């Protein structure tokens, strides 16, 4: 009997070693987190597993990955450090096994409301690396029996490897992003530098001086926009962007966006039309972020249209999804460019001197829509126009019409 137990234990440790190797080679943060939670649930024979990372700005724990929680809901879910079991594990830097969470005063009940999974038993370990605690790895509800000290030791071993891998993936992602941005910042900086040299020359006429200053200001604005967008992208890519999910009436949101962009459309003699949207068509999303996506698409439709054109926006439901469409009769996008327009900094060569832009607008749109578990796609024909469609799942809110965030 003892021998069988020993060989089973060795098998489980062997599994931890294999998993550690897999984790060390995954540098994409989201896939890494997903990998860790599934490995943890599997290793401890548990119903579900989650990772909560400490979020410095809010001083709370934030769900970043879970085997049983949809990404949009999860990202809005904050867990207070001072009144939760995960918070206790984080502060005490100690693992914990709770056989009956409902009787534990530290249990934070709102998670069960969001996941629809009642937490009966729980095993959690702190994620520590370099003597720094970055979060908590939890498994809940053992499939058979109770969590044991053996489960705890295995999860501690997995947690130690997971913590190192998480920190590495974050660093890798940041350095990747930073090098891309430094590269892109160089062009406007070089042109500001060249313009300032020109300004110093005595033979420059007043008219030329005005033009040079204008160029400099345009490049400075571009740098400014790029910095703001950079922060947005960095937050979305490192999973630090929080969503405040509420139930949104699609018609109202689209109307608000059209009203905001009407003036810009009129300046270019374009008509902006809101098509009829089914009444009570609702989507669960972060209002401000979804509005940002729609405003971005409308702004592009205006930018890449010629006077006299038409822009229309509509929303409809299809099975379990809500589809929002922004269509224009603008210059269109060639087939060879279409697959790349959502890439960072990608601007179609034919249109890049038509209007100013950073090539980041659609990247942000894509990231925001994906953080809602949705996707965005474009169809287009050169000289005819383009249609951008946002497809979002019709999620249901765990609490009646209330945002998830504390
Ligand atoms: P930009 O700041 O250049 O507008 P985006 O990421 O928003 O960056 O868009 C990337 C590229 O996709 C644009 O440079 C443009 O060539 C093309 N594009 C985007 N929207 C449209 C549209 N509605 N019609 C035609 N081309 C578009």
DSSP helical segment count? 10
Shape: globular
Helix share, percent? 40-55%
Cα-atom Rg, whole angstroms?
26 Å
Give the low-confidence spans: 397-406
Residue fraction in strands: 15-25%
| Overall pLDDT level | 87
The largest β sheet comes out as: 6 strands, antiparallel
> Which class best fits the helix and strand makeup?
alpha+beta
Hetero groups: adenosine-5'-diphosphate
Total number of β-strand segments?
13
Structural description of this entry:
This protein is α+β, with helices and mostly antiparallel strands. Helix content is 46%, strand content 22%. The protein contains ten helices and 13 strands. The chain has helices at residues 2-24, 29-43, 71-75, 85-92, 110-115, 149-199, 206-237, 250-267, 287-303, 361-371, and strands at 46-55, 60-66, 78-79, 96-98, 122-129, 132-142, 245-249, 271-274, 282-286, 310-318, 321-328, 375-381, 385-393. The strands form three sheets. Strands 3-2-1-6-5-4 form a six-stranded antiparallel beta sheet, with helices on both faces. The chain has a five-stranded mixed beta sheet with strand order 8-10-11-13-12, covered by helices on one side. A hairpin with a 3-residue loop joins strand 12 and strand 13. Helix 7 (206-237) runs parallel beside helix 10 (361-371). The longest helix is centred in the middle third of the chain and has 51 residues, at 149-199. Mean pLDDT is 87; it is low at 397-406. The site of adenosine-5'-diphosphate (ADP) has 21 residues, from helix 9 and helix 10.
């Amino acid at each position: 009997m003892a021998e069988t137990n020993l060989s089973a234990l060795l098998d489980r440790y062997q599994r931890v070693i294999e998993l550690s190797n897999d984790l060390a080679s995954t540098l994409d943060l989201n896939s890494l987190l997903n990998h860790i939670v599934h490995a943890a649930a599997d290793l401890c024979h548990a119903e579900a597993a989650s990772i909560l990372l400490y979020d410095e700005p809010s001083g709370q724990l934030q769900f970043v990955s879970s085997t049983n929680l949809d990404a949009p809901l999860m990202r809005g879910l904050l867990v207070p450090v001072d009144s939760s079991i995960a918070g206790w594990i984080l502060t005490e830097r100690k693992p914990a096994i709770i056989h009956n969470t409902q009787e534990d005063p530290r249990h934070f009940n709102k998670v069960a409301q969001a996941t629809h999974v009642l937490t009966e038993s729980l095993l959690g370990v702190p994620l520590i690396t370099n003597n720094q605690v970055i979060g908590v790895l939890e498994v809940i509800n053992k499939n058979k029996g109770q969590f044991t000290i053996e489960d705890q030791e295995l999860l501690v071993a997995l947690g130690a490897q997971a913590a190192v891998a998480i920190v590495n993936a974050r660093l890798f992602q940041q350095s990747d992003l930073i090098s891309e941005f430094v590269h892109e910042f160089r062009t406007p900086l070089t042109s500001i530098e060249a313009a300032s040299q020109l300004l110093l020359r005595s033979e420059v006429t007043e008219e030329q001086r005005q033009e040079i200053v204008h160029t400099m200001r345009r490049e400075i604005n571009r740098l400014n926009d790029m910095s703001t967008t950079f922060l947005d992208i960095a937050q979305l890519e490192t999973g630090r962007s929080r969503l405040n999910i509420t139930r949104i009436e699609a018609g109202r949101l689209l109307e608000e966006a059209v009203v905001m962009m009407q003036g810009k459309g009129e300046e270019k003699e374009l008509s902006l039309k809101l098509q009829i949207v089914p009444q009570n068509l609702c989507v669960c999303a972060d209002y401000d972020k979804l509005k940002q996506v729609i405003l971005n698409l409308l702004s592009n439709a205006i930018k890449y249209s010629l006077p006299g054109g038409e822009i229309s926006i509509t929303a409809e439901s299809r099975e379990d999804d809500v589809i929002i469409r922004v269509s224009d009769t603008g210059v269109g996008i060639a087939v060879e460019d279409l697959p790349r327009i959502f890439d960072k900094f990608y601007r179609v060569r034919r249109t890049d001197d038509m209007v100013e832009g950073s090539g980041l607008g659609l990247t942000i749109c894509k990231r925001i829509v994906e953080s809602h578990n949705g996707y965005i796609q474009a169809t287009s024909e050169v000289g005819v126009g383009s249609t951008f469609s946002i497809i979002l799942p019709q999620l249901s809110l765990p609490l009646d019409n209330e945002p998830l965030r504390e």
